[in-house]
């Protein structure tokens, strides 16, 4: 309902002889594609394209990420 994802990221330094590592919790807001497009439009942007990755693969139903190419109206 809140569309918030909680994860824990683990970091290890492969060059640390003592195996130094740490972890940190993260949470971030999830947006549905239509919701994000409405927010962008409402704030004066025109959506030029939607991608699922930074190599410009088009957004699909099973995409885990959203990248929007926008222009000011």
What do these coordinates show?
With 73 residues, the chain is mostly beta strands. The protein contains 1 helix and 4 strands. Strands 1-2 form a two-stranded antiparallel ribbon. A two-stranded antiparallel ribbon has the order 3-4. A hairpin with an 8-residue loop joins strand 1 (4-12) and strand 2. It starts with a strand and ends with a strand. The model has no long low-confidence stretch (mean pLDDT 91).
Record field, number of beta strands: 4
Using the alpha-carbon principal axes, give the shape.
Answer: elongated
* H/E element sequence: EEHEE
Q: Write out the strand line-up for the largest beta sheet, numbering strands in chain order.
A: 1-2
Strand content: 35-45%
Low-confidence stretches: none
What does the largest sheet look like? 2 strands, antiparallel
Secondary-structure content class = mainly beta
End-to-end separation in angstroms reads 32 Å
The DSSP helix count reads 1
- What is the radius of gyration computed over CA atoms, rounded to a whole number of angstroms? 17 Å
Average per-residue pLDDT, rounded, comes to 91
Portion in helices: 10-25%
Short key terms for the protein model shown above:
73 residues, 1 helix
Summarize this, please?
This protein is mostly beta strands and 73 residues long. The protein has one helix and four strands; from the N terminus they run ββαββ.
Give the helices and strands, then pairings.
Elements: E1 4-12, E2 21-29, H1 33-42, E3 45-51, E4 67-72
Antiparallel strand pairs: 1-2, 3-4
């Amino acid at each position: 309902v809140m569309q918030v994802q909680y994860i824990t990221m683990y970091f290890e330094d492969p060059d640390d002889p003592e195996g130094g590592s740490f972890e940190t919790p993260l949470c971030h807001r999830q947006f549905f594609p239509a919701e994000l497009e409405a927010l962008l439009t409402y704030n004066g942007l025109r959506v030029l394209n939607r991608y699922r990755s930074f190599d410009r693969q088009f957004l699909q139903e099973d995409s885990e990420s959203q990248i929007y190419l926008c222009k000011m109206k």
